[in-house]
Specification:
It is a single chain. With 243 residues, the protein is an alpha/beta fold. 46% of the residues lie in helices and 13% in strands. It is built from 10 helices and 10 strands. The strands form 3 sheets. It has a 6-stranded parallel beta sheet. Strands 2-3 form a two-stranded antiparallel ribbon. A two-stranded antiparallel ribbon has the order 6-7. Helix 3 runs antiparallel to helix 4, helix 4 runs parallel beside helix 6 and helix 5 runs parallel beside helix 10. The longest helix has 31 residues. It starts with a helix and ends in a 6-residue tail after the last helix. This is HAD hydrolase-like protein. It comes from Streptomyces tubbatahanensis. It holds the Pfam family Hydrolase. InterPro entries: HAD-like_hydrolase_sf, HAD-like_sf, HAD_sf.
Amino acid sequence: MQELTSAQCVIFDFDGPLCRLFARRPAPLIAGRLRTTYQHALPDAAAHETTDPLRLLTLAFGTSLPGEAARAAERSTARARNHATARAMERSLTEEEIAAAVGAFPTPYADTLVRTLCATGRTVAAATDNAAAAVERYLSGRGLLGLFAGRVCGRTLDRDGPRLKPDPDCVERALHACGAAPADAVMIGDSARDVLAARAAGVAFIGYARNERKERELRDGGAETLATSLRDVLLTVDPLAHV
């Protein structure tokens, strides 16, 4: 993992590399609650098929008026109303993610890896499509928040909706928070969207493939360096680690 040995900044995706966020509060159940509460903002048939809360959020922001005969002022008013509802959905999703963070399962070796990276002079950051508040709640419970202080970069909203991966926004904000150039950083992620976001930001990438499905997804997304356990990553950082 040559990408890691020279990196001064290590950027983690959150759900996957650091923990299983929805281990006790499954994402499909959260999606179901959001769908029930905000169904008036989800006319797209795809909204009734997806079990991904983030997909529902993007659908809510993508809602448009049916028909093209409406006057411009009417379209503008309805668009603002739809976006207000979508932003309310985003706040509800944030609350769900914070609640999920309380019962999230730590990824094996993740805590030790983070502490070892910091002990060896590296800076760590998080770049995620989840809410920063949920990440901070989880890290606080693990005694890790201070190691990520000021470098938790969760999803943001602009006037068009959430900026989610493969948009490199959160990765670029993590780089800025670390004061690092892309060439001095590496990202650890577990999805094809992570691969693309890292590539767009010019950051090297290590894929965390905890099962065969994730390995296929990462390889199909273009990841070249994979680890099936963070133990391998930890031993690259500290070959003498007692793990």
